[in-house]
Design brief:
about 130 residues; seven-stranded mixed sheet; 10 strands; about 60% strand
Length: about 130
């Protein structure tokens, strides 16, 4: 059993093909709920806006911003909720090609000392309107 259950709701985007789509330079916001399934000795919980590459060659990534939504331990059965809001940059746009893919995501993590941090990511698309 996972020690934490994550729920992320993205707002303000346009639903397309199972993902939310956002215009470059537009705001992205949402809600995060973290439900501990056991007591967790944590430092903080935070949300990051980031992009990363997948595919052949060198991997690249960049965090655009981070918002802390909780400090301290998590208690079993006591959900923690927080809001986030970021401004998307003009580029890079989401891209899916033969050799490389650029993935945008809201990345949520709980900083737990001396262990692997529980984490969860929700991908979304950054590109101008219209289907491509």
């Amino acid at each position: 059993m996972d020690q934490i259950t994550f729920n992320v709701t993205l707002q303000e985007g346009i639903a397309e093909a199972g993902f939310m789509r956002y215009e470059p330079s537009s705001p992205i916001s949402g809600l995060v709920q973290i439900v501990p399934n056991q007591d967790v000795n944590a430092r903080k919980a935070a949300v990051r806006l980031r992009w990363r590459t997948e595919g052949r060659g060198d991997m690249d990534s960049e965090s655009i911003g981070e918002t802390e939504i909780w400090q301290g331990n998590l208690v079993k059965g006591r959900p923690v909720q927080g809001q986030f809001s970021f401004q998307l940059p003009q580029q890079p746009w989401s891209y899916s090609g033969h050799y490389i893919t650029i993935v945008w995501e809201i990345f949520v993590y709980v900083d737990v000392p001396l262990t692997g941090d529980p984490k969860f990511a929700v991908p979304f698309v950054v590109r101008p309107g219209g289907k491509r």
